[in-house]
Amino acid sequence: MSAKRSSIHGQWSSRWAFILAATGSAVGLGNIWRFPYLTGENGGAAFVLVYLICVLMVGIPILMAEILVGRRGRQSPINTMYALAEEEGLSRYWSLLGWMGVAAGFIILSYYSVIAGWTVAYIFRTGSGLFIDADATYSKKIFVELISDPEKLLAWHTTFMLMTVIVVSRGVKSGLEQAVRFLMPALFILLLVMVGYAMSTEKFMDGINYLFVPNFEQLAEKNFFADILLPALGQAFFSLSIGMGAIMIYGSYLSQRSSITFNSFTIAIADTTVAMLAGIAIFPIVFTYGLEPGGGPGLIFMSLPIAFGQMPFGTFFGTLFFVLLMFAAWTSAISLLEPAVTWLVENKNMSRVKATALAGVIGWLLGLITVLSFNYWAFSFEFAGVVKENGMFDIFDILTSNVMLPIGGLLIAIFTAWLMARKSTIDELGLGDSLLYQSWRFAVRYIAPFGVIIIFLNAIGLFKLIGLVN
Question: N or C: which end of the chain has fewer CB within 10 A?
């Protein structure tokens, strides 16, 4: 059935174009911003090892399942789920899975654009020499001034959303593919330059040991389940862009001849490589300049600028680093806007340019809530025992990352491994009834759903309630 379908939006020119695009979707602020500070907070090398296992056992099977669904349906996630449910004799309400993915991606895009705007702002702040000889107080002051000023946040949010809209409006080959063909190699080159600089620092080997050599004395002080397994599982799942419609729509542009298994492993390896390179680039700088590796989310925007202000050629390398962050955010944002655009084109008879403009404006307007969440509309609340201070931004983040994405990933696993005909999945994966196929089916039937359920239960605070975590 899938061989007779074709996407009205176009097709990737090659498997490598798809791999670059899907890797770009997966590689974002989560790899270069979130992964290093999570590693620092949760045990260094031990966290990294568990993270890699989670990518293999949970991330890749669901990634394969989402690409499989996208290629078989070859439409927007909403229409794909409707068509495949009908094909398999299932309820049409499975289209709600597509709606949830598109909605989650759209909400994420609205606040992601604001945070990505910070990276654009920091390119100019660092490049102007603002952080030369800066101390912790001054660095924090610069950051707080930025997020407290809604006009500045709005300007950078608008700039970044416009960058995203321009690329998506140009279509699959002229827009998405051309952008990732430039952005992804550039991102890797910039990372390697940063790694090259890190190799020249005094504490390079300290950073490498921290990242790759487990400290068993430190591990004895940690709760393996709460401090290592749960954050590693969550990072593995979310770093691959699963459950938000982006990978599904990119899969719909994939040639029938291209191997889903090969592509999925390649995307996961590339995504993980970026995270590791980010750690290799950041931790030697952290140790050389006496920063705290477990510095949390402020590691990038408040701590690293201090180091850039002290190091030789720090203005150059600091600017380079934030350009790198912007590229990573840009490739992800493009994939978050695409599912909504394809639905508008398919269902509202719009041109791609008009659909992209409409979706971009709605995403921009929704982003205003996040802009104001850091200043005029800020309020605090407690979720799962943790105090959140940024109002609706935190609510959006909790709703998508802790609820919608895990449920989306779980339902994709159930749909492909439990409800789709075995023949359908064999046909789409092209593996025959081989050991590799059986291994995938077992993982996506049992291991991956179990992992996603653990993420979800922890996210809603159940483990804290029953005392499994502090």
Answer: C
**Residue 404 confidence (pLDDT):** 87
Q: What single DSSP character describes residue 296? A: T
For residues 175 and 168, give the distance between their C-alpha atoms in angstroms, rounded to a whole number. 6
C-alpha torsion 385→390→395→398, nearest 10: -60
Q: What is the pLDDT of residue 469?
A: 63
Tell me the residue type at 81: M
Q: How far apart are CA 176 and CA 84, in angstroms?
A: 26
pLDDT digits (tens, 9 = 90+) for 367-389: 999 999 999 999 998 876 667 88
Which residues, other chains included, contact 224 with Cβ-Cβ below 8 Å and sequence gap of 6+?
Answer: none
Nearest to 181 by CA among 18, 63, 354: 18
Query: Under a CB-based contact definition with an 8 Å cutoff, are residues 24 and 177 in contact?
Result: no
Alpha carbon of residue 158 to chain centroid: 21
The three-point CA angle 55-338-333 to 5° equals 60
List beta partners, residue 387.
Answer: 382
Domain boundaries, the chain: 2-466
Q: 350 vs 5, 334, 347, 354, 359, CA distance in Å?
A: 21, 19, 8, 6, 11
Element (H, E) at 81: helix 77-87
Euclidean distance between CA atoms 390 and 398, whole angstroms? 12
Q: Is the per-residue pLDDT at 302 higher than 90?
A: no
Is residue 115 within 8 Å of residue 303, measured between CB atoms? no
Closest Cα partner for 84 from 416, 430, 340?
416
Please give the Cα distance from 362 to 109 (Å, whole number): 11
Say what the pTM is: 0.91
Q: How many residues does the chain have?
A: 470
d(CA 440, CA 61): 6
Mean pLDDT of the chain: 89
Among 233, 231, 243, CA closest to 62:
243
CA-angle at 307, arms to 305 and 312, nearest 5°: 115
Q: How confident is the model at residue 1 (pLDDT cuts 50, 70, 90)?
A: very low
pLDDT, position 283 = 86
% of the chain residues with pLDDT over 70:
93
In the chain, the largest separation of any two C-alpha atoms, in whole Å, equals: 66
Q: Which amino acid, one-letter code, is at 267?
A: I
Would you say residue 224 has pLDDT above 80?
no
Q: pLDDT tens digit string along 98-112? A: 999 999 999 999 999
* Cα end-to-end distance, the chain, whole Å: 51
